[in-house]
Every structure is written in structure tokens, then in C-alpha cells.
TrEMBL record:
This is Aldehyde dehydrogenase (NAD+). Its EC number is 1.2.1.3. InterPro entries: Ald_DH/histidinol_DH (IPR016161), Ald_DH_C (IPR016163), Ald_DH_CS_GLU (IPR029510), Ald_DH_N (IPR016162), Aldehyde_DH_dom (IPR015590). Residues 28-477 form the Aldehyde dehydrogenase domain. Keywords: Oxidoreductase. GO terms for molecular function: aldehyde dehydrogenase (NAD+) activity. It is an enzyme of class 1 (oxidoreductase). Belongs to the aldehyde dehydrogenase family. It comes from Sphaerisporangium krabiense. The active site is at residue 256. Gene3D superfamilies: Aldehyde Dehydrogenase, Chain A, domain 1 (3.40.605.10), Aldehyde Dehydrogenase, Chain A, domain 2 (3.40.309.10).
Length: 479
């Protein structure tokens, strides 16, 4: 049974300004245009703040500031000096972790337990990790004299706002690039707080610039002629547009796009552990995760047992106020995303799959979707093929390992997969055949700054994280 918990007082620890400008050249400036956007709390629909909607002229100013900072300071600074700034940023993030976690949960809708225990520690870890590389780039195995690329245009989505920022900014700065970053329209607040952190860390002006706005702002940024590198995380659809628009230019591009991961449970798996992994795989962050295990492939012989255990476990999850520490499932990030999840779920029913959710009171205000299972799913169903990006699990079955591989790979995506079995040899056999950038064994959604992450096929190209993540921000030609 779900309970909706009332909002506690923790939002008092954040200081949200009513209105934000753009962060360009180390200063808060007004947009040159008049357009403004609002960001709301998806759990209550209350307006949190208003912010500038940057236009082409604003983007131009931001890129010019990044270029100047690159040419005059950052691109020339020894790696050990850059490292000091990154270590400082990491420490400030740690010091302000509580406040940033609350801000993230307010703006995004994710449970505070996740923003506090997953997002924020990983944000700090990314800055610490790449700070460590800044003075060792020639030992990264990328050639004797790697050089930065210049100005990086970075566009990120709303599902892990500050963590995606860290994935982009930490390696870019460690390698000596300067940055103009555009956060998603529905979650700008932690990126704007990060601008303040750059000031606290005394980062030279122009090294990091934050331009808020919507898709047109992102487009102006990636199309800007003075950008050397484009790093994008978001939908495959927008990724395609970006790839087309930079084709033939000198810009280097990395794209982290969508996914439709299979979580594959064999009959010999430790069942309780697998149930936890499947729940974490799809319901973590309301399923707003590019590598979410949105397809459960279960071996036919244990289907009934696994489903019964899964339903029992789902009935214990609490959906409600993201700021309540007991909440497991928070709010859906936006009305548009909720509409998309509803539409695909209705298509699942229409196409003949059976829908199940635990009984669950839905708060009147805000955007909510209960954890949902679909059984009797065929590979041709839209819920088995399309990314839902919500708390919806499609259950399919298989008999043999070969069939599991075939079904798991039967998707245009190739970001991640999970394998649950006690047999080590089977893990290796499966990992060798699954067309996925990450294969987790007896775990899921586990991240580490030292591990490269990225996709095959329509999930994008390039890797973020680890030593491989440096390559995206370096020119590796010998001098
Ligand atoms: P998108 O609609 O693609 O938006 C991503 C970012 O691109 C946002 O900042 C968006 O701005 C901006 N944007 C929109 N149109 C643009 C254009 N024409 N040119 C340049 N930028 C543009 O995705 P989303 O809805 O935010 O995020 C969900 C998707 O991201 C899912 O498909 C998910 O799988 C994928 N994702 C992938 C990963 C990895 S690591 N592979 C991680 C997280 C998310 P506005 O939001 O302001 O419109």
C-alpha cells in the first residue's frame, strides 16, 4: 500500500532566488532578449524560480567568453594548476551536498535518498577523479602530447541534472578545455548553483559558462561556429539532429542517447537479489534513466516465482514527497514526460499486454505514475521497443541463453544490459554476445567515475567516464 507523505521542512535549507540570469565570464548577466522561462516543482507544480531563456546573441557572448578564457588562461595552465581548481570544486560540492541534494529533488522530483546518496556523492567523485588526471594526461595512453580541443558546447538532459553536468564539465576542464553548458529547461537550478560553486572555487572567469533556455538555445550553442567540441546527452531524436548539423564541420562530437536495456534473469540466479536488482533497474529515479532495465527477460521456468516476488516487493515501495527520506518513488519530471509514459502504457494495453500496478493513491497535484508491470509482452509491442523513460517494466520470457541474447539484442539501442546467474562462465558468455556498452552481472545501475560509459548502435558514440572519457576532450595527435 502506498502512502503519500507531506512535505517536511528540509526545503528551508535551500536558498532559491526568484529570478536567475545567465552565467557568462564569471558574472551573472541579463539575457539580451526578453524571453524568460519558469521551473516548477514537479511534485507540487509550484513555481520554484524564473530564469533567462538565452538567445543566439547570448550564446555568442558565452562562447566568446569561453574562447577568451581558453586562449588567455585555461588552455595554457599547467595540468597541476587545473587540478587544484577541480579538487576545490569537488570539495565545495561535498560541503554543499545537502543543499544541492534538496535543490535537485525539488527541481527534478527524484527522492532525496537518491539525490543525497547517489547523485551528489557521484558528482563529487567525478570532480575528484578527473582532478587526478589533469597532470597525468600524457600517461593516459592517448599519445605523448595530448592537447585540449578548445571550447566545448555541452547540452544535458533533466534526469540527473547535476551528475550529467559533472560528467561533462569535469573531464573537459581536466583536459584544458573551456565550457559553455546548457542545462535542460525543466531542471536548471543545480547548474545555476554550480555557477556559484565555480565562483567559490575561484575558477577564472569564462572557463565555465552556463546558458539556460530550451531546445533553441541548445541548437544555437551546438551550431556556433567557434565551438570545437559538442557533447550531448539526451534523446536519440535530438542526437540525430545534432549529428546532422555538425556534419562536415571541424567539431568533434560525443552523443549519449537513449536505451532499452534488458535485465536477464536465469533460473539459477539468487532470486531475492535479482528482485532487488530488477526493482532498482527500472524504478530508480522513476525510470528516468537512459540505461534503465526496462525489459525484464526471465527464464520461463521461474517466471511465476519471480513475478510473484516482484509484485510483493513493489507493494512495499512508497511513492510520494521527494523530500521525504522514506520515499522510494518520486514525481515524474514534467507533464510532457507523464503524457509520454501514459501514452505508451495505454499502447501496451491496446496491443494485448497485461498491466499491473500495486494499489496506490495518487496525489492531486504534481506529476505521478505508479510503478507498473506489463506481462505477456511480445517483442513487437511498442512497450518492448520504445524507450518509456518512466517506471514501467515490460516482462518477456526466454528458454535458452541464446534466445536471451537474441531478444536482448533485438533493439535499435545498445547502452546497457544486466545478467543474473550464479554461473561465472555464463556471465562471460553473455557479456561477449550482448551488444551493450555496459553489461552488469548480478547488479544493475552501478556507476563509478573510473568506468567508461556509453552506447552501441542508436545509443550514441563516444565514452564518458574513466580514462576513455579523456579522449573525447583531447586532440591526441603527436606534437
Ligand atoms: P532531449 O529532448 O533530447 O533534451 C536533451 C537536451 O537537449 C535538453 O537540454 C534540451 O533542451 C536540448 N535540446 C532539445 N532540442 C535541441 C536541439 N534541437 N538542439 C540542441 N539541443 C536541444 O532529451 P530529454 O527529454 O531531456 O532527456 C531524455 C532522453 O535523454 C532520453 O531519451 C534518455 O535516454 C536520454 N538520456 C541519455 C543518457 C545517456 S548517458 N545515454 C543520459 C540521460 C538521458 P530542453 O530540455 O530545454 O528542451
Amino acid at each position: 500500500m502506498f502512502e503519500y507523505a507531506p512535505a517536511p521542512e528540509s526545503r528551508d535549507i535551500v536558498d532559491i532566488r526568484p529570478s536567475y540570469g545567465l552565467f557568462i565570464n564569471g558574472e551573472w548577466v541579463d539575457s539580451l532578449g526578453d524571453a524568460r522561462d519558469k521551473t516548477i516543482n514537479p511534485a507540487s507544480e509550484e513555481v520554484l524560480a524564473e530564469f533567462a531563456h538565452a538567445n543566439e546573441a547570448d550564446v555568442d557572448r558565452a562562447v566568446a567568453a569561453a574562447r577568451k578564457a581558453y586562449d588567455s588562461v585555461w588552455g595554457r595552465l599547467p595540468g597541476r594548476e587545473r587540478a587544484k581548481y577541480l579538487f576545490r570544486i569537488a570539495r565545495v560540492v561535498q560541503e554543499r551536498a545537502r543543499e544541492l541534494a534538496v535543490l535537485e529533488s525539488l527541481d527534478n522530483g527524484k527522492p532525496i535518498r537518491e539525490s543525497r546518496d547517489v547523485d551528489l556523492p557521484l558528482v563529487a567523485a567525478h570532480f575528484f577523479y578527473y582532478a587526478g588526471w589533469a597532470d597525468k594526461l600524457e600517461h593516459a595512453g592517448l599519445g605523448p602530447a595530448p592537447r585540449p580541443l578548445g571550447v566545448a558546447a555541452q547540452v544535458i538532459p533533466w534526469n540527473f541534472p547535476l551528475l550529467m553536468l559533472a560528467w561533462k564539465i569535469a573531464p573537459a576542464l581536466a583536459c584544458g578545455n573551456t565550457v559553455v553548458l546548457k542545462p535542460a529547461e525543466t531542471t536548471p537550478l543545480t547548474a545555476l548553483a554550480f555557477a556559484e560553486i565555480c565562483r567559490q572555487a575561484d575558477l577564472p572567469p569564462g572557463v565555465v559558462n552556463i546558458v539556460t533556455g530550451a531546445g533553441d538555445t541548445g541548437q544555437a550553442l551546438v551550431n556556433h561556429p567557434d565551438v570545437d567540441k559538442v557533447a550531448f546527452t539526451g534523446s536519440t531524436e535530438v542526437g540525430r539532429l545534432i549529428a546532422r548539423s555538425v556534419a562536415g564541420s571541424r567539431k568533434r562530437v560525443t552523443l549519449e542517447l537513449g536505451g532499452k536495456a534488458a535485465n536477464i534473469v536465469f533460473e539459477d540466479a539468487a532470486l531475492d537479489q535479482a528482485v532487488e536488482g530488477v526493482v532498482n533497474g527500472i524504478f530508480f529515479n522513476q525510470g528516468h534513466v537512459c540505461c534503465a532495465g526496462s525489459r525484464l527477460l526471465v527464464q520461463e521456468s521461474i517466471e511465476a516465482e519471480l513475478l510473484a516476488a516482484l509484485k510483493r516487493r513493489l507493494s512495499t515501495l512508497r511513492m510520494g514527497d521527494p523530500l521525504d527520506k522514506n520515499t522510494d518513488i518520486g514525481a515524474i519530471n514534467s507533464a510532457a514526460q507523464l503524457a509520454k509514459i501514459r501514452e505508451l502504457s495505454e499502447a501496451g494495453e491496446r496491443e494485448g499486454a497485461e498491466r499491473w500496478s500495486p494499489s496506490c493513491p495518487i496525489p492531486e497535484k504534481g506529476f505521478w505514475f505508479p510503478p507498473t508491470l506489463f506481462t505477456g509482452v511480445a517483442q513487437s509491442h511498442r512497450i518492448a521497443r520504445e524507450e518509456i523513460f518512466g517506471p514501467v517494466l515490460s516482462v518477456l520470457t526466454f528458454r535458452t541463453p541464446a534466445e536471451a541474447v537474441e531478444k536482448a539484442n533485438n533493439t535499435p539501442y545498445g547502452l546497457s544490459a544486466g545478467v543474473w546467474t550464479e554461473k561465472g562462465s555464463r556471465i562471460l558468455w553473455m557479456a561477449d554476445r550482448l551488444r551493450a556498452g555496459v553489461v552488469w552481472a548480478n547488479t544493475f545501475n552501478r556507476f563509478d567515475p573510473a568506468s567508461p560509459f556509453g552506447g552501441y548502435k542508436e545509443s550514441g558514440y563516444g565514452r564518458e567516464g574513466g580514462r576513455h572519457g579523456l579522449e573525447a576532450y583531447l586532440d591526441v595527435r603527436p606534437m
